[in-house]
Backbone:
């Protein structure tokens, strides 16, 4: 059986020095939220949603609260399942 792993990142940009600690704390919290789902026998998709929601609720990230809307007035991020798109 494969060992589960959660990988998140806090953005693909040059994080200013004064934001690094908050960014790392937010990433660690997102991992904890996702891991809590997995350790209680939740699905991988539910774990991803929990981790993403944690980051969306954190204003340090350009997601959710601080997101940049796309030209269709929506948000770019969404989870995908292997057999279906959700």
Residues:
């Amino acid at each position: 059986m494969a060992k589960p792993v959660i990988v998140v990142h806090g953005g693909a940009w040059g994080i200013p020095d004064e934001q690094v600690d908050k960014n790392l704390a937010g990433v660690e919290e997102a991992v904890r939220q996702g891991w809590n789902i997995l350790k209680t026998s939740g699905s991988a998709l539910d774990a991803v949603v929990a981790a993403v929601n944690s980051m969306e609720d954190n204003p340090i990230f350009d997601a959710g609260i601080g997101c940049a809307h796309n030209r269709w007035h929506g948000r770019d991020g969404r989870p995908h399942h292997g057999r279906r798109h959700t």
Notes: The first helix runs from residue 20 to 39. Residues 10 and 24 are 8 Å apart (CA to CA).
